[in-house]
Amino acid sequence: MLQFIVRRVLLLIPVLVGLTVIMFAIARILPGDPVALAAGPNATQAEIEALTVEYGLDQPVWVQYGHYVSGLLQGDLGTSLLTRRPVAADIAAYLPATLELVFAAMAIAVLLGIPLGLVTAVWRNRWPDYLSQVAAIGAISMPRFFLGLLLQLCFAMWLAWLPLGGRLPIIVIPPPSVTGFLTIDALIAGDWTAFTTALSHLAMPAIAMSLSPLATIMRMMRSSTIEVMQQDYVMTARALGLPRRQIITKYVARNAVSATLTVIGLYFGWLLGGTVLVETVFDWPGLGLYATKAIVSQDMMPVIGVALVIGLLFVLANLVIDLLYGVINPKVRYS
Amino acid sequence: MTDTAEHIATEPELPKQDKLQRALFRFRQSRLSMLGAVMVALVVFFTAFGTLLAPFPEHIAGGVDTAARFQPPSWAHPFGTNELGQDVLSLVMAGTTVSVLAGLSVVLIGTVIGTLVGAIAGFAGGWIDEILMRLTDLTLTIPGLILAMAVAAALGPGFTNMIIAISLSWWPGYARLVRGEVLAVREESYVNAARAIGASPSRILLRHILPNTVSPIIVKMSLDMGFAILMVAGLGFIGIGIRPPTPEWGTLLSVSRSYMPDYWWTAMAPGMAMFFAVFGFNLLGDGLRDILDPKARR
Question: What ipTM is given for this predicted complex?
């Protein structure tokens, strides 16, 4: 087990090196002059040159890359030209918001998708099943940002039940940071007002994000349940006269979930990369909004940093899923 | 979706002339696939004729009618007019061409690059395979939207640049798929036979191996069309894709955001059009998968 983890972690190294090379290459074909942008419209030529030297942009590309990598090893992701803050600090500030959104969306998707998949498999080929299949393809086809706009229009603008966007209004004092997730921090602090406020802000973006993974998990769970239900041991359990409920919860569900887990791992990465649009709609202060703002002002270091962090999290998520797979399904041996 | 056993159970009633007819028969049996085919046909129709049939062609070219700003939906303007007094329906109809052609280009480029990479990797094996597949895995770890955003920002706005940006993240799926298929058929006896009679490697690859990978590729292409359209619209929505006045669904939706909730109708037509097109392609792809690629059925 330990050997397996160590080997998987070592395999991350070439992936990360490759990631930095690709992202750095993209950053350097960028036209335009980011230094002039950072220096402002009234900067003199001397000031611009000083900034160019300060950021090391006067040196050959491979030297710049070398500096970048040696900095990376010390946890330095470069400096944002726009915010003039270290990218690592910016990412540390924005990452919890994105993770909170991703986990909330994932929680909705898993908590609804797995039971729905199970139920539709049991009701296979009856009208609720057909209906849910069409609805699932519809849910996958729904553009997240359009759904977000519709939710905003309906629940924030017309009904005024939920806030339009943002994460926590300035007037609410944020709970002391423990996990970085406002909802959980508020619960830890026992601050009910902050909790409900944070939750009301989280609700719509999380729902908009969750629809597509929810539908996919449901379909995956449905088909793996159908497969499991045709296995001999289920037949045996049925022949033994075990109650239907017990067969489904104890034998079928557990085996069907392990096949669905892989999809959940893949979707984690998809959600991380896909928060951009929903964060834009709901003005959610996460990595996606940060990267979008940086791109619009041709500030590439944050974009490289965000892509690296998301890539790393994606690979880690897959590692965790692989390990979980072994826990749920003991037949899987780490080789 | 029904499972394999049931399809086999209905098999004896099938006309047995040839595989194509059998596939068509099965396709027609599935109502959802037919619905998808009809929806895609409509989308293709508007891609070809949307600009011609638009009730207010002058608005597509950028013409404005400030006297008629923000008119709610009516008989003359079924989806109302926007902040420039342009007919939203006309813009969305013309936008079909842009979105679908962009999506199609992305999928085609992704397919060609991915097929080449996957076929070479699977056929050559050894270190070539190793390098190409590591590159493929690497590209897969970068979220497509973020990679596309970075490249699109680096290249600047515009139709071609955006297609290049998205295609860069689109090929790895095809590379993996094709490599797997090539590996599966590489050692088949008909390939060995071709090798034995002295066929060149390129001939073996093109004539004997690749034709066997066509069905899964077609299935993936039809499922990908919807997602490519969404990606194009997404880039337009965050303002680094196709720029106005070219009517593009994502950009139209993004502009309409500023006029919510009072002029909500400006958002409806572009959003619904996106949903409709993607839904159609997904239904069609799902149906095609059931018929052409029973192995991948879920």
Answer: 0.80
Query: Does B7 or B74 have the greater pLDDT score?
Result: B74
Q: Does A157 touch chain B (CB under 8 A)?
A: yes
Question: How many angstroms separate the CA of residue A191 from the nearest CA in chain B?
Answer: 33
Distance (Å) of CA B140 to CA A42, B12, B134: 43, 43, 10
What domains sit in chain B, N to C, each tagged with a CATH number? 32-296 (1.10.3720.10)
pLDDT in tens, A227-251: 888 888 888 888 888 887 788 777 7
Domain containing A141: what range? 102-164+211-296
The answer to whether the CB atoms of B138 and A141 lie below 8 A apart is no
Same domain? A30 vs A159: no
Contact yes or no for B274 and A143 at CB 8 A: yes
Mean pLDDT of chain B: 80
- How far apart (Å, rounded) are the C-alpha atoms in residues B237 and A74? 36
CB-based contact A273 B279, cutoff 8 Å:
no
Residue numbers in A near B149 (CB within 8 A): 276, 291-292, 295, 303
Number of domains chain A contains: 2
Per CB-CB distance under 8 Å, the chain B contacts of A306 are 146
Q: What's the pLDDT tens digit per position in B168-186?
A: 888 998 998 888 888 888 7
pLDDT band with cut points at 50, 70 and 90 for residue B1: very low
**Which of B137, B142, B274 is opposite residue A307, by nearest beta carbon?**
B142
Residue A20 domain-assigned (yes or no): yes
Cα distance between residue B37 and residue A233, in whole Å: 40
- CATH number of the domain residue A135 falls in: 1.10.3720.10
| C-beta contacts of A170-173 below 8 A and 24+ residues apart | A172/A197
Specify whether the CB–CB gap between B241 and B163 falls below 8 A: no
What is the rounded average pLDDT of the residues B49-70? 72
